[in-house]
Amino acid sequence: MSTETFEFQVEARQLLQMVIHSIYSNKDVFLRELVSNASDALDKLRLEALRDDSLGADVSDLHIDIEADQEARTLTVRDNGIGMSYDEVIQLIGTIANSGTAKFVRELKGAKDTAAAEGLIGQFGVGFYASFMVADEVVLLTRRAGESEGTRWSSSGEATYTLETVADAPQGTSVTLHLRPVDTEDQLHDYTSPWKIREIVKRYSDFITWPVRMTTPTTAMTEDGDGDGEAAGEPETLNSMKALWARSRDEVSESEYHELYKHISHDWTDPLETVRLQAEGTFEYQALLFLPAHAPHDLFTQGYKRGIQLYVKRVFVMDDCEALMPPYLRFVKGVVDAQDLSLNVSREILQQDRQIELMRRRLAKKVLSTVKDLMTGSPERYATFWREFGRVLKEGLLSDFENRDAILAVSSFASTHDQDEPTTLKQYVERMKDGQEHIYYLTGESRQTVENSPHMEAFKAKGIEVLLLTDPIDELWVDAVPGFEGKQLRSVAKGELALGDEAEKEDGAEREKRQEEYAALLTWMTERLGEDVKEVRLSSRLTVSPACIVSDAHEMSPALENMYRAMGQDVPRSKRILELNPGHPLVGGLNRAHTERADDQSLAETAELLYGMALLAEGGQLDEPARFIKLMADRLERAL
Ligand code: ADP
Question: What domains sit in the chain, N to C, each tagged with a CATH number?
Fold first, then answer.
């Protein structure tokens, strides 16, 4: 049969280059990756055979074989699982399917920085490609269950690979590595040594539910002892196959949990936290969940796979089981093993099952209480968790009413209280000033815009803490969440400001007088700017800026309006309120000029400029920047 040569997809080639030249210190993990893939392939075959009895595959002795040849320096990992078709080999082995990883590889391409490459390998794992850390040639022979012909793939990890159709391949996949010479400095051990293989499998793959076998040649002790008497020995099973969640807690070490996490998540980094849950009673199940230490790149892309695997009485049944975790906890990985489900339960059935719903709620609560424990017991790890997953978790404030308070309790937010450290709501409430009734916040695009917005001035002057909310999701939940521990959440850019302190009450009379002084100006300006604002009024929130724009208490913020528009919804533009700072010389001057001259072109332009400045100051956009600039330039010129 003819051999065809193919090129790796660009990103795959770049990743391979990184792998080949990597100094990744723990090269042993290549074997873990091969065994993990083989185990997945056995799971898949078992499921497919269950669904399709015309498949004609032999599932009587599913297992993984490891075979080492010390003389030829080859190592083969073989499974009799699902296998791959010719096209699948091209798809699965020749390309990187995970769009997030592909993007990251592209970004790293230019940076010929080994440390960065190391980071990439460690964070995302490189799966099958890890073989090229230890081998200079890899041959994969595979036949998909149900198909008659097999495929041989081979590559040295450079730009190309070859494919060939073979008539007599056994069902499943074998991967043969032509190992590079042993080099202890480079952590390249002798991977043909039975002792080494045993050790690696035991360490990384002990919990794999299928037998991992190895046949070591037994050297017959002949008189001359020259080893001539080598004969194939008995196959030994290297792994205990015991499900970790079925073993008692003190029997399982932390590193064993971590290896299971790596097997199911394809992440090479240890998880941040391991969560065990045992439910007894009418609906019995065990759960072993993990909070990863970093967010995957595709967490916010559509179709992101939720990482819970479903087992029924130790038998793998389903990957990415979305019925077991609410969407805002989609980053949680793990295994749930239920006693009383059918082995061929479908996704549709799970979605409607009352017991499954109860299980999902219980798991969500457990995850939230784990985060809470991290918060109190391990602030550093909590900070990592929040940095990586806070944005996702906050989605739950909109969707999970039952756990809203629990989510709020484990959330933290940037605040004016501290430049670096975020605050919890509880801490905020503890710091609230005497007489302060609300929890104040401001939403916006970045900490800088929000912090420097004119809306903050009075709060700065009075030393009142404001939460600085800059995630897109913040625009949404602040309107949905009524409050925390009886304290309402209030935007500093909405409604009338009543900070209600003593000083303010005292100058009530003075305020009334000022209100009278400005009444005519306010009426006139409200009319002049009527197309843009619904009211012009005096402000109690400004100390420095001449003007700012605020919304009514129950109106959407401009950013939220924009978000809805970006999603294709037709949102009418709501008119907001322009507030003037009577203490500012420009506003005072405008009032005097207006009393003297009533209305003229120059006053009208000043009013317009004031509005434009207020809009810019909060990070907003002018409708007609060109006109604003012209007015401004004219003024500046006259002032020269
Ligand atoms: P990952 O396992 O993280 O998806 P890999 O590069 O290890 O990435 O493998 C890519 C894909 O190739 C797997 O998802 C699987 O579909 C397929 N594959 C790898 N090894 C095997 C195998 N032994 N049998 C069947 N399919 C396999």
Answer: 3-219 (3.30.565.10), 245-387 (3.30.230.80), 412-505 (3.40.50.11260), 506-640 (1.20.120.790)
